[in-house]
Each structure stands twice: as structure tokens, then as C-alpha cells.
Amino acid sequence: MNKSFYDFSKLKSSENKSGQNYQNTKHSQNSQSENYAQNENSQQRTRESGSQQKYQSTQNSQDTENQNQNSDSQYSQTKNIEDTINRYKDMSQDDLMSNLLNEVSKQKQQGTFDVAKLENAISSFSSFLTPQQQKNMKELLNKIK
């Protein structure tokens, strides 16, 4: 009887250990699953963060490129104005008038001359002109119409 009790105790002890091992294994598996899920979440956040950074970097590059294009465009416009001033600055009034009438004639032939646009441009800067300059502009506009 002692032997069977002893065997039974061993068996119970073995079952307890086996149950504990099962629980430890289960706990270990749960921990591993949680670690895996946490790792996956971390990797997903890293990918999302990387995507956001790439998007931000791309957006910044596009903004810089647009700013450069605007700067280039402004420079080009300024350069064109300076070139035009330099081309006409040493001409006499008669030469200037001749060039203007030639240009107007060419634009009329091409169908690109727009009197209304010209009148709007003159009226937009006429407040910066003296009364005499305003009078001269009106006379000039009447000549080229």
C-alpha cells in the first residue's frame, strides 16, 4: 500500500509538474506571441514613419524646386526688363517712336495687338506719372489706335 501511495504521489507530482510545464509553455508561447505582435506593431510604425518622412522629403523637394523655378522666373523677367531698358536707353525720341509704331503695326498684322489691354496697363501706372506724362501717354495711345 505504501508503494502504491508512493507511486500515486509520484504520479500526482509528475502531473503537477507536467501541468506547470504546460502552463509555463503556454505562458511562454503567449509571451512570444505578444512580443511578436509588439515587434510587428513597431515595424509597422517604423514603416509608416518612414513613409511619412519620404513623403515629407518629397514634398520639401518639390517646394524647393518650385521656389527655384519661381526665383528663376523672376530673375528671367528682371533680366528681360533690364535688356529692354538697355536696348532703348540711348535712342532718341524719334527712334523710340519709330520702333513703337513698327511694333504696333507688326502686332496688328498678326492680330495680337490688344488696345484694351494696353489701356488697362496705362491706367494701372498712370497714378505714378506727372500730369504732363499722363497727357503724353494719352496722345501716344491715340496715335497707335
Describe this structure in words.
The mean pLDDT is 76. This protein has a domain at 92-145. The N and C termini lie far apart (132 Å). The longest helix has 87 residues, at 2-88. It is 90% helix and 0% strand. It contains four helices and no strands. The chain has 145 residues and is mainly α.
What's the layout of helices and strands?
Elements: H1 2-88, H2 93-110, H3 115-125, H4 131-144
Measured as a percent range, the helix fraction is over 70%
Order of helices and strands: HHHH
Secondary structure class reads mainly alpha
Nearest-angstrom radius of gyration?
A: 44 Å
Question: N-to-C terminal Cα separation, in Å?
Answer: 132 Å
Low-confidence stretches: none
User: What is the number of helical segments per DSSP (H or I, 4+ residues)?
Assistant: 4
Strand content: under 5%
Q: Give a quick account of the main beta sheet: strands, pairing sense, barrel closure.
A: none
Q: Count the strands?
A: 0
Give a summary of the structure in a few sentences.
The chain is built from four helices and no strands.
Task: Give short descriptive properties of this protein.
145 residues, mainly alpha, 90% helix
